[in-house]
C-alpha cells in the first residue's frame, strides 16, 4: 500500500491514463527523479550522519581525539552510572507531565475551535491567533518568561498585591515549574494543529444524529469526538514528546542550570569533545524515542491522516 | 453546542470560551511583556517597573562591538540563509509532492525517513553532521553543513503541507488539460502550479520561519559564524540588560512581517481568483 494511494483515489484515473501520451521513461523513474532532491538531502544530512553517530558510539577516545574501535564501554557507562539514570528519569518525567497537560489543553482548544465557533471567518481568525506564535522564535518565547516569573516579576507583583503571601515566591523562575510552563507554552500548538485537523474531518451529521437520539454534550465528546480525533492526538503527542525529549536549552535557561535532561548531558559531553560517550547516549535516547513513536503510531494509522 | 445557527448557546460555550481566552493570554502575554520592556529607559532593568521609555536598547543592537556581539551581521546571515532555505524547501517539496502522487518502490521508506528526520532530537542531527564533516576532513560552514542541517527540519514540515495542498487538488482539471493535448510540463506549468500556488507560498513561509528561528540543528553545524538565534542564545547567558528584549522584539517583528506578506499574497491570489470567477459568471449570464 503506497502512501500516494489516498491521493490517487480522487482520480478516476485508468481511462485518463490510457489517453496520456507514452512517456519515454517508466513511471517509477519519473517519481524517483521528482523525489530525488529530497532523498539526497535526507541521505547525506540525516541518514549518513546518524550512521556516523552510531559508529562513533563504539569508538575509543582520549582528550579530544577519537580512535576507531569496537568498545561497549560507552554503553556500559550509561547503564551503570547513577547520574545518567537520573537524567533519563528527569527527561521522562518532563515528557510525561508536558504530554498530559498539552493533550488536555490541546484537545479542548481544538474542540472549542472546531465545534463551538460557528462561523468560518471566526474559526480562521482564532486558528490563526493560535498558530502565529509558531512562526516566532522559540528562544525568544522562552526568555519572555524571565521578566514574568522572576522575584520582581509580574506574577510575583500580582500575587503580592493580593496579600496572600508576604514574600515573593521563589519557585516560579529557575525551577521545574518554569521549565514545564515554557514547554507547554511553546509546544501546545504542535498538539492543537493535528487535533483540529482530525476534528474538522468528523462528519457533522454524526453529531446531529447523536443529539437527536438524546445524547448530551459530554456523551458526544466521549463517544464520538474523542475516538475520531485519536489520530490527531497521536500525531500531536509524537511531536510534543520528541520536542521535549530533544530539548536542552529551555531546561538549561529556565531551570537556571539546576535541572538537566539526557540531551543536556549530551550537550555537555559535546562541549568537552567527548564524542564517543555523547554518541552512545544519543543512540540510547534515540532507541527510546523511536520505541515511543512506533508505539504511538501503531495505535493509529498516521499515514492515512497525513495524506488526506 | 453545534454550528447550526439559531440554537441557543450552551453554558459550555461560555466556559470553554473563557478558557480559550486565557489560553490566548498565556500565548501572547509574555511576548507582549518583552515588547514593552524592550522600550525600557536607559537606567531600567530587566523587569518592571519601567524607568522611563527609550530606544537605547535598540541602538545598542546596531553597535557591532562590545559584549553584545555582532548582531547586524548575524541578522544578515540568518536572513540570507532563511531565504535560501525557503526557496529550496518550496522547490524540493513541490517536486517530491508531485513524485509521491504515483506509487513507486521505496515511497514508504522515503516517507518514514522524512518523518524520522522530523521527530529526531535536533542536537543529534547537528552532532552527526558535525561529526561526519570532521571525520571527512571538511570544514563546517553556514551554507554547506548549516543549510543542510536546517533542510532536515524544514523539508519534512514542508512535505506535510505539500501533501495537504496537492491532496486537495482536483485532478479533473489536469485530465481536461490532457484531453486538450497538453504535455506533462504544460500541465504542471499552466494548470497545477497556478492552482496550488497559495499552498507553495505556505511551504516557503514555513521554510523561511523554521530556518530563521532554528537553533539546535544549527548549533554545531554553522561553522564559526553565528546565526541570529545562536547570538540570542549567547546573549541569554551573558546579557543582563533589556538589549536582549530589544533583540527579541526586532526578530519577532521580522517574523511577523514575513508572515503578513505571505498571508497578503495568498489572500490576493485567492481574491483575484474569486473575482475572475465572478466576472466570468457575470459575462456568462449577461
Automatic annotation (TrEMBL), chain A:
It is a multi-pass membrane protein. The chain crosses the membrane at residues 32-59, 66-88, 94-113, 125-146, 171-196, 232-251, 278-300. The keyword Transport applies. Residues 88-296 form the ABC transmembrane type-1 domain. The keyword Transmembrane applies. GO terms for cellular component: plasma membrane. Belongs to the binding-protein-dependent transport system permease family. CysTW subfamily. This is ABC transporter permease. It comes from Lichenifustis flavocetrariae.
